[in-house]
TrEMBL record:
Protein's UniProt name: Thymidylate kinase
ATP-binding in keyword set: yes
GO biological process: dTDP biosynthetic process; dTTP biosynthetic process; dUDP biosynthetic process
GO cellular component: cytosol
Stated family: Belongs to the thymidylate kinase family.
MF-aspect GO terms: ATP binding; dTMP kinase activity
SUPFAM superfamilies assigned to the protein according to its UniProt record, in alphabetical order: P-loop containing nucleoside triphosphate hydrolases
Domain Thymidylate kinase-like: 7-177
Record-linked Pfam families: Thymidylate_kin
Sorted UniProt keywords: ATP-binding, Kinase, Nucleotide-binding, Transferase
Length: 212
């Protein structure tokens, strides 16, 4: 039976690189493997609206935590059928970001994990919206690429400096938000939010072993 695996982590944590390594690893094992990344910029109108909000092009919508979270969720709702098709055609499907990214970043914007009420309530709201109401597939396991916040921030800045279309967005420019999001991700992993998690700690050279 096909397995739905999710890779989560901060902006600049190295998810794209690890995604490629994992797909290659599984393919070499003889498994049919493919990947999909969220938000699906250029492929879904909700994702494109999210990008506009993150760059301040949608007025005060960018200030609404729940408004942005709904747009992220609608992108995944629109992709639910594609995810199920990929699961039917492969042995493993790897998603670069998924529902937990909404729970982590939204909670961090509201103050979690320093605010107990947000820590408790916002991830539940996201799960009820994306899983219960929008019927997005539930992941079988999730991987947290736990790159240190400072390292991830340096990578994001370096990427922005070398790419004309990759300027730092509202989330990436906020160092305090990234730090809270990192802690929120660890809380979600520790509490097995949506599924079991594995935390991948980079070694001294910044790389992690590819999980089976």
């Amino acid at each position: 039976m096909a397995e739905l695996v999710v890779l989560e982590g901060l902006d600049g944590s190295g998810k794209q690189t690890l995604t490629r390594r994992m797909i290659t690893h599984w393919t070499q094992q003889g498994r049919r493997a493919t990947s999909l990344a969220f938000p699906r910029y250029g492929a879904d109108v909700h994702a494109d609206l999210v990008r506009d909000a993150l760059y301040g092009r949608l007025g005060d919508l960018s200030e609404s935590v729940h408004g942005a979270a709904v747009l992220f969720a609608l992108d995944r709702r629109a992709a639910a059928g594609e995810i199920r098709r990929l699961l039917a055609e492969n042995d493993v499907v790897l998603l670069d970001r998924y529902v937990s990214s909404n729970a982590a970043y939204g909670s961090a914007r509201l103050g979690a994990p320093d605010d107990a009420a947000v820590l408790r309530d916002f991830p539940v709201w996201v799960r009820e919206l994306e899983i219960d109401r929008f019927d997005c597939p539930v992941p079988d396991r999730q991987l947290l690429l736990a790159t240190p916040t400072s390292v991830a921030a340096d990578r994001a800045r370096a990427r922005a400096a070398t790419s004309e279309d990759r300027a730092l967005d509202q989330f990436e420019r906020d160092a305090a938000l990234q730090e809270r999001t990192g802690r929120m991700y660890r809380h979600l992993a520790a509490t097995s939010y949506l599924s079991p998690w594995t935390v991948l700690e980079p070694g001294p050279d910044g790389t992690v072993a590819v999980p089976d």
